[in-house]
């Protein structure tokens, strides 16, 4: 069997360990993490595989030709900033798409570069996921959904068909979204919410049924 492409994970925190577990070793050869922070003894990422800081990326790509990368950062805006930083360091950087072998992905779904789909998730036919999206554990994305770049779901999210989720938006743990709903850009849907109405850009919504509660500034923390 041919050896998979070398893979670097940017981010060695707890989420780095989750992303590492998603790597299909038939397609990729994990070589280590890059992170500006010192090793975290409580992290599920293995500190002995911390190869350096993010600024070491150009040198590592020279040492490992053909290396691809993926970002292991849960917060959407922080993930966006890391992608921009990495692309400034290496404009030709190739982002890997990581789908856990235990996820179910329709042959008629489209998944963009840098996106991670965690174990137990289902992406149904006709759905289109953009760049650097995080689909967390056990999420169900039904048919003909779209998610724009740098959006994310928490574990256990369920969407109906024809749902639209804007860029940099997050749907929280266990939330459900009714079919045909549009969630705007830079929104947060609270955990366990049921979304039955469209949500405009820049709103935090929660409750059953979910209702807009307050406006959200770009990059405002939600994790």
From TrEMBL:
Residues 7-85 form the PglD N-terminal domain. Acetyl-CoA binds at residues 173, 191. Keywords: Transferase. The record marks 144 as: Increases basicity of active site His. InterPro entries: AcTrfase_PglD-like, PglD_N, Trans_hexapeptide_repeat, Trimer_LpxA-like_sf. The active site is at 143 (proton acceptor). GO terms for molecular function: transferase activity. Pfam families: PglD_N. Substrate binds at residue 74. Belongs to the transferase hexapeptide repeat family. This is Acetyltransferase EpsM. It comes from Sphingobium wenxiniae (strain DSM 21828 / CGMCC 1.7748 / JZ-1).
């Amino acid at each position: 069997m041919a050896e998979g492409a070398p893979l670097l994970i940017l981010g060695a925190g707890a989420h780095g360990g989750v992303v590492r577990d998603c790597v299909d070793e038939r397609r990729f050869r994990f070589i280590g993490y890059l992170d500006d922070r010192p090793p975290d003894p409580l992290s599920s990422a293995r500190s002995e595989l911390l190869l350096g800081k993010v600024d070491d990326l150009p040198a590592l790509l020279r040492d490992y030709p053909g290396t691809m990368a993926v970002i292991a950062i849960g917060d959407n805006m922080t993930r966006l900033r890391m992608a921009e930083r990495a692309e400034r360091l290496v404009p030709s950087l190739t982002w890997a798409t990581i789908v856990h072998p235990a996820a179910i992905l329709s042959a008629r779904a489209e998944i963009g570069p840098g996106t991670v789909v965690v174990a137990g998730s289902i992406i149904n036919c006709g759905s289109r996921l953009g760049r650097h999206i995080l689909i967390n554990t056990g999420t169900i994305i039904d048919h003909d959904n779209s998610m724009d770049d740098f959006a994310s779901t928490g574990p256990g999210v369920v969407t109906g068909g024809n749902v639209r989720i804007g860029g940099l938006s997050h749907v929280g743990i266990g939330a459900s979204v009714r079919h045909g709903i549009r969630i705007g850009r830079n929104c947060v849907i609270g955990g366990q919410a049921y979304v039955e109405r469209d949500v405009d850009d820049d709103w935090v919504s929660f409750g059953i049924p979910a209702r807009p509660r307050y406006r959200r500034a770009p990059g405002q923390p939600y994790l």
